[in-house]
Write a structure and sequence with these properties.
Distance between the termini: 24 Å
Strand order of the largest sheet: 2-1-10-11-12
Number of domains: 2
Structural class: alpha/beta
Radius of gyration: 22 Å
Largest sheet: 5 strands, parallel
Number of strands: 12
CATH topology of the largest domain: Rossmann fold
Strand content: 15-25%
Helix content: 25-40%
């Protein structure tokens, strides 16, 4: 494992996310003559109807749904279809953001339904939620990661709600990378770190540089015994590309 910063030249970087259509990473690739590869280390899998039934949660017993992500929308409607549950027109939808609410149009006739949305957090939905708190039973479709800020809020404010795990985030199969080595690995979540060691339990950092985004990812990497070479956000660098750029100015000068 690396124990100090030597700023050895960087030629290859692996970003543990899907490749975007546009990205400032592409400019780094050009400016520093790098090869940047993209590979999601984690992916979402839906539970089957059989797996979901084990929780003994029945969507027809709930009059309102709280959506925290597009994944939650997708898997709620998929699960309802697999369970052969016909969604009533008077079901109410509470969405964390407007983009989630707009996404609902893929599944429902928007103008006929009661849809409420916030700007970003559960607090933005405070008024409509509290207006309906005592009248509705709320279902919260979620993953194995859940949404603690949402569940804590609902619990503290005594909402009648149930978390319904309909999908899960799991480690992707990276076995084809076993004999491929990168100068820098870039991580954005603790699950990315977990996936690295799920796939390669004997991983040795050696001269590989590790870049992490966010405090939780940093903690997961340090707990796994990794030396962190690049981190963001910081007071200096608000984005990962800024932090990488500053590092590359030294390593590839």
């Amino acid at each position: 494992m690396a124990v100090s910063e030597t700023y050895k030249r960087v030629k290859t970087i692996l970003v543990s996310q899907p490749k975007p259509e546009r990205s400032p990473y592409f400019q780094l690739e050009e400016d520093y003559a790098l090869t940047i590869d993209w590979r999601p280390f984690i992916h979402v899998e839906g539970l089957t109807a059989k797996e979901f039934r084990r929780f003994k949660i029945y969507p027809e017993e709930y009059s309102a749904i709280i959506f925290t992500s597009l994944y939650a929308v997708d898997h709620f409607f998929r699960m309802c279809e697999e369970l052969r549950y016909k969604i009533p027109e008077d079901l109410k939808y509470f969405c964390l953001t407007e983009s989630i609410a707009n996404y609902l149009q893929k599944f429902i006739v928007f103008r006929k339904r009661k849809v409420f949305f916030g700007a970003r957090t559960i607090m933005d939905l405070k008024n409509p939620l509290h207006k309906h708190r005592d009248k509705e039973r709320f279902l919260l479709p979620c993953s194995n990661l859940a949404a603690p800020e949402v569940t804590n809020y609902l619990r503290e404010n005594k909402f009648n709600f149930v978390e319904a795990m309909m999908y899960q985030t799991v480690s992707s199969d990276l076995s084809d990378l076993r004999d491929i080595f990168y100068d820098v690995l870039v991580f954005f979540s603790p699950l990315g770190i977990k996936s690295l060691f799920d796939n390669f339990p004997d991983f040795q950092q050696n001269e590989t540089r590790i870049a992490v985004f966010g405090d939780q990812t940093l903690k997961a990497a340090e707990d796994a015994g990794l030396y962190i070479n690049i981190k963001a956000p910081t007071s200096e660098f608000s984005s990962m590309t800024m932090a990488l750029g500053a590092y590359l100015k030294k390593s590839n000068a």
